[in-house]
Write a structure and sequence with these properties.
The protein is α+β, with helices and mostly antiparallel strands and 409 residues long. It is 32% helix and 29% strand. The N and C termini lie far apart (61 Å).
Length: 409
Amino acid sequence: MSARPTVLVVSPGDETYRGYCLEQVAAAYDVVLLTGVEPSWEKPFIVDHAVVDPSDPTAVLTGGRALAQRHDLAGVMTWDEWHLVPTARLACVLGLSSPSVEVMRACRNKATARTLFARHGVPSAASMKARTLLEAGLATMTLGYPAVIKPAASAGSIGVIRLDRPEELPAAFAFASAGAGRSREDTAVLVEEYLDGPEISVECVTHRGETTAVAVTRKHLGPAPYFDETGHTVDAADPLLAQVTPAAAAAVRALGITDGVQHVELRLVDGRPRLIEVNARIGGDRIGHLVHLATGIDLPKAAADLACGRAPDLTPTRSGAAGIRMLYPDTSGTLTARHIDQQFAAHTPWLRQVQWIREIGDHLDLPPVGDLFTARAGFYIVTGRNTAVVTERLDTAAGAITVTAKADR
């Protein structure tokens, strides 16, 4: 019998983007898995599993109860945005520590979050819900242009688009509605004022109602009018951290979160933070890994500690910077070439990882037809002593990497 506590992880995600989370949790805990497919890459990091349909709430509860009968569970957790609510419900049924289902629903629904931000005086964006094109048009008449239209309960910038003129509204509403239709929670869209300024996220850890901001992530976006995130940088000494911590902590409090890891997105408008949303889990695109490379703080382990009712260790053990850049073709089409200069890679220790996620012959779709799941060919990660060095190295590495797609006729 293991002397380590056992934590149940719901929906581990794919190895490319979330493998590091499972590996880091498994370094400190025995892990049992609730997953939609038979484990493959996960096997070295788990002691047991159950396969269920993750979209079926009853199946999730049944699978979780079965694992709880076989193991003395200390906690339940997920880093999957789509499974925050079912995971909270499962933890409640099993009598384990977790934010309430209502709190997780508020985090998942941007309309609810906007209402709570306004109620608690957290600076955010003016927002109106719309279920029809007519309602969206009325909202733009109130909010003005430019505006943003987005799904009320989605993730990954899917269906999020900026519009600058009334004639763009029908196509923008259709684009956002298509993204909203993928949600099992709310298929409405939101029309919001456009927050003009650099976008960042604040990586937070909350324990017993006290929020600690451990890092700032500076985001890079693809071409307008879409909001596809094409890269991120994290610097342990980022001067923005102290500036944005109060707004991030206020947003977490407004939603009623008392424990957990949060990825808080905001924009700096005239130098002042304005909230976009609070994601009640570790940031995607390997942001948690960047935080670890830059600061030494282990966000997946912190999330597991909190799920098990323990105080996390947030002591920085490094002071550097790290960055990731996504690899895209110039056009939608069939991937015909993906290449990294091997001599450059072999003699470049700061190039920590080059990861291909698509094969030659695969079809890549850029927005508006595609999204982050269909557009990216891969990514690479670099480290350095500060953001300036990391940015320079990201640009240098880009010259050694080739991604080519042949456009469809």
